[in-house]
Design goal:
Layout (H helix, E strand, L loop, with lengths): L7 E3 L4 H14 L1 H9 L4 H7 L8 H7 L14 E5 L16 E5 L1
Parallel strand pairs: 1-2
Antiparallel strand pairs: 2-3
Length: about 100
Amino acid sequence: MDGKKSTSVPLLFSLLELNNGKLNQRLSIFRFMDPLTTGEYPKSMRSLVKSRLPKFTAEQARLLIGSFDFIGINYYSSIYASDAPHLSNAQPYYVTDSLVISECK
């Protein structure tokens, strides 16, 4: 790992699984944080969800950026993530967008 804490721990420690743990983290935490700091959803989320993800107007993005006084994130959880490429054939749904299966242990 790269020394950064992650909210998702891969079930298998292959490079692909490590990347999926990071993707799952990116879609779980940064789907809320990126709009508040950049005015848009994370690129990884936009590429997976595509046209189903609403876009912010320039005015909405301007109002969102920096619109917080304090953000507290509790990341002490055990969520295991494993690669699920078969989900690319599933009906589009927010649970399957990440192509990762997450489970609490």
